[in-house]
Write a structure and sequence with these properties.
There is one protein chain. This protein is mainly alpha-helical. The chain has helices at about 15, 20-135, 140-260. Helix 2 runs antiparallel to helix 3. The chain is rod-shaped.
Length: about 260
């Protein structure tokens, strides 16, 4: 049985002209198969480049979103810092007010004590004067002493009432000042708590929106990857089917050629 000679693509045009039609067809099929493989490789590379471009765009979007969120968090942090500074300033002002009111109260107490000492000294002087006049004018001094005693009692009673009233007014003023300071502190604390609660709500809402955005983007990326994998699988199946068909056709052609050569 004779064997068929081997041909390659480097044959001269004269020898190609001497090839049989079946071998030419085999060579043409081989060339077509090579061209199809090159085309598939180029298409595969083009799809790979497109996927990489889409992934790069998604990465850039995620980077911009992250920068925007960092900017928002920084703004919230600055606002909280300003609130803390305002609270510290309010606390210092309240302490200064308490100190000033304490000094004023001490000054009033000192003034009342001084007035009492002056009154006591005046009373002692009056008693000494009356004692001296008793030796000179016994009857007149008794009458005068009775008048002076009555006047002194009235004066002392009046002074006692005035002092008691002044002390009562001071206590009432101190109580009113204390209540006003406590009310003001409670209002400031309530306002600060409300503002902090509002900021916590805003932060929770921002976090929820960010998580929903991230989940949506992840789902979109997963869907895109699934579609791309499906397309790659379809392309692979089409390519394998085409290759199988071409190989069967090539094998049939080779069989026919060999059968023709044997004949």
């Amino acid at each position: 049985m004779s064997t068929s000679p081997h041909y390659n693509g480097s044959m001269s045009p004269d020898r190609n002209n001497g090839e049989s039609p079946s071998k030419l067809r085999i060579r043409q099929l081989s060339d077509k198969l090579t061209g199809l493989q090159m085309g598939l490789e180029e298409e595969k590379q083009a799809r790979k480049d497109a996927v990489e471009l889409k992934l790069k765009v998604l990465d850039e979007k995620l980077s911009r979103q992250q920068i925007a969120e960092e900017t928002k968090f920084k703004l919230l942090k600055d606002q909280i810092t300003k609130l803390q500074e305002g609270l510290a300033t309010e606390k210092i002002a309240r302490e200064i007010l308490d100190e000033r009111k304490t000094k004023e109260l001490k000054l009033v107490e000192s003034s009342i004590s001084l007035d009492l000492n002056v009154e006591k000294q005046a009373r002692k002087d009056s008693e000494a004067k009356l004692a001296k006049m008793m030796d000179e004018k016994c009857f007149a001094i008794r009458l005068e002493l009775a008048k002076e005693k009555k006047l002194r009692e009235e004066t002392e009673e009046r002074h006692s009432r005035e002092i008691a009233d002044e002390i009562t007014r001071l206590h009432e003023s101190i109580e009113l000042e204390r209540r006003a300071r406590e009310d003001k502190g409670e209002k400031i604390l309530k306002k600060l708590n409300d503002e902090i609660a509002r900021m916590h709500d805003m932060l929770s809402m921002e976090k929820k929106v960010r998580e929903e955005t991230e989940n949506t983007m992840l789902r979109m990326l997963e869907d895109m990857c699934a579609r791309m994998q499906s397309e790659v699988q379809m392309e692979r199946r089409d390519r394998e089917t085409t290759e199988e068909t071409l190989l069967k056709l090539l094998e049939e052609t080779c069989s026919r050629v060999e059968s023709g050569l044997r004949a």
